[in-house]
Amino acid sequence: MMSTNPAEQKRPDVWIKTKDSDLYINPLPVRIWHWLNAMGFVVLILTGTFIRYSDRFDLMSFETAIKTHNWVAFAVIANYFVWLGFYLFSDRITVYHPELNFRKFFDKAFKQMMYYGYGIFRGHRSPHKVLPHDKFNPMQSITYQIIMLLVVPVQFITGLMMWDIKRFEVPIAMVGGLNVVVTAHVLIYIFFVAFTMVHAYMGALGATPATHFREMFTGYEEEH
Amino acid sequence: MMVRSTTGGSGAALPVLTVFIACCMVFSGGLFALQTKETPVTEPPVAEPSVTVTPAEEIVVTEKTAEPIAEEVKDPAALRLEETLKINTKCLRCHKRERTKLLEDGTEMPLQVHKDDYLASAHGEVRCTSCHRAIGKRKHPSKSTNITIASQREYSVDLNNSCRKCHMPKYKQYKGSVHSALVAQGSEEAPLCSSCHNPHAPVSMVDYQAETGLPCKNCHENIFNAYSESVHGQARINGNTIRDSHIQAPICSDCHHSHEVTALAIGDVLRTTCIACHENVTLLHNQWLPNTGTHLDIVSCAVCHAPFAKRKFDLHLYDNIAQVPLAMKEGEAPIQDQLQAIADEGIEGDPLEIWKARGGFGQEGQAVDISLRSRMEVMSGVAAHQIASKSFAVRTCESCHEPGWRQKQNVTVSITQPDGRIQSFEANRETLSSVKAIESISDFYALGGKPSKLLDILLLLALAAGIAIPVGHFTLGKMIKEYMARGEK
């Protein structure tokens, strides 16, 4: 269990030099999960695109695309439990709910939107102060919760159903048939195509375009 | 002392003794002579030469001559056999000759029975009248009795039931076959027992078809030719093995059965039949084929293993409650006629859905849950028999999963007929992507088939958003900064 006091955070040795004042925001399990997940998503999107539009690309055989998609999908599912396990069994779960106050939440969310839409261009500081146990701004918090607790599990479940249609014959029938399952899977894939691009762009909105990417490798929120 | 007294004591005794001895000799000689004269009378009547050819007959004759007393306690079965042979001999006196009978339909029916073949066959001990029951002394078809025969087919159909008496198990199997169903429908070509088994010279059917394809080839010549060129047919010709360890390569009856002949294309009957020999098929496919179970369920073996065959999407009406392909019942109008009638009513919507809502083929009061199940099939029965060696089997996923591939395929809708055969009728290729048919074919999907243009448009929008949001945000930032910079100046 880690301390909630930033000052008490023991500084781990890392391969990129950071200042003593930086906060340890992204513990190792989160960083491992994040980058494996990112690579997995990119591969899944690429192979998924090839499976769906194999006549447009000549990158690999259909069989290779399917097998790669399946193996990587299982790795991503396993990786999901690294994320889930870490947040369930550590006090860091508060990054998603620092305090359960909806009025405060919507107020902060509005301020954050104003920041992204205007303040950021004026050189204002983000209204959200990043802390180890209050990492996400309200917009990040709500978006990531919807993604991780609803969208991603639905994608996993529909993918599993398509992986072995016969084995999951009954649940497939219960949710309305194979076409419903496939359509849900493709819709979420389409969402992630857009999300991945926007997420990467927003990752570049730090003090410098590389700041947040570096933070996600070192674990430390750089002082700026 | 006594002799002396006898011979010397009575002078008249000698002539008396001499006369007595002479009388005895005459009497015994007469008896002997009498017995010699009667011998031909006590001999059994010589059996007709034509019947003495069978070992059974020889045994009967031997018993008669050697031990006449045994005739009185003879086995009833032997007596019946003797009687049977006598009756059959009478029939064969005429029917051994090459002759024909003019029938009512103007054709001539051959009447000849090859005597030796018949007597040597399993039916050789069966009375002619056991099968030809209508034939009797006064009932034999002839000019004098004025009994006529309409046609050879009608005569054979009448006689078909005769086989039941001795061959009930096989007869029951036959009655459940597609052949029997066709006969019941009045087919002139569908095979009767006698179409495959010559009743006057029946032989074992084991190994009967391998080289000649008979009797199946009589009606299914194209299919037999396809089979004989296939890996199965070739294996049979080239030593009867198909793999090193092995199993006999199949002939027609191994897959289709010899009496309960069925259409293998129904449901998963074909797959079950193939797996009966290729028992490790699931394991082998599982090594490389994703979704093996589903592929084996919905892709007919021949689709990949007859690589040059034309393929089609077959949409089969399926009873979800009974979990079997939907079969029409006797007397019902064909489904296509029913659907056409609904379409002619001008009601909005998918005719199939309306037909289902009205109860489909279900009995009144019964729940009906019918859907269309899609299967990949080959176009014809001939193609289904063109099974090639494993090395030629299709193993490229793209052959089915390429976008646009679906639009090029033939589409049929099928239903099982009351006789067990499958009736297919062509459907529009657009059926598979028709909005009207979405509910009917909700389970139809092939990866890469790209059935929805709407999803393609959404993907393009997502890509556009993924580019436009960063570019727009970045541009907006620049514009604001420039505007503010100008303001500060």
Molecular structure report:
The complex is a heterodimer of chains A (224) and B (489). In chain A, 20% of the residues are buried. Chain A has seven helices and two strands, in the order E-H-H-H-H-H-H-H-E. Chain A has a single domain, classed as Fumarate Reductase Cytochrome B subunit (Up-down Bundle). Chain A has a two-stranded antiparallel ribbon. In chain A, 62% of the residues lie in helices and 2% in strands. The two termini of chain A are 28 Å apart. About 5% of the residues of chain A have low confidence. Chain A has 224 residues and is mainly alpha-helical. Chain B has 489 residues and is an alpha+beta fold. Chain B folds into three domains: 153 residues, no CATH class; 186 residues, no CATH class; 29 residues. In chain B, the strands form two sheets. In chain B, strands 3, 4, 5, 6 and 7 form a five-stranded mixed β-sheet that branches. Chain B has a two-stranded antiparallel ribbon with strand order 1-2. In chain B, strand 6 and strand 7 form a beta hairpin. Chain B is elongated. The N terminus of chain B is likely disordered. Chains A and B meet through helix 2, helix 3 and helix 6 of A and helix 17 and helix 24 of B.
How would you summarize what this structure contains?
With 224 residues, chain A is mainly α. Chain A has helices at residues 28-52, 62-88, 102-122, 138-163, 169-174, 178-203, 211-218; strands at residues 23-24, 220-221.
List the helices and strands and how they pair.
The complex is a heterodimer of chains A (224) and B (489).
Chain A: E1 23-24, H1 28-52, H2 62-88, H3 102-122, H4 138-163, H5 169-174, H6 178-203, H7 211-218, E2 220-221
Antiparallel strand pairs in A: 1-2
Chain B: H1 2-9, H2 13-42, H3 55-66, H4 76-95, E1 100-102, E2 108-110, H5 115-120, H6 128-131, H7 152-160, H8 168-175, H9 178-184, H10 193-196, H11 216-219, H12 221-229, H13 231-237, H14 252-256, H15 269-277, H16 281-286, H17 292-298, H18 301-305, E3 311-319, E4 324-325, H19 335-344, H20 351-357, E5 370-378, H21 381-384, H22 398-401, H23 405-408, E6 410-416, E7 422-427, H24 453-488
Parallel strand pairs in B: 3-6
Antiparallel strand pairs in B: 1-2, 3-4, 3-5, 6-7
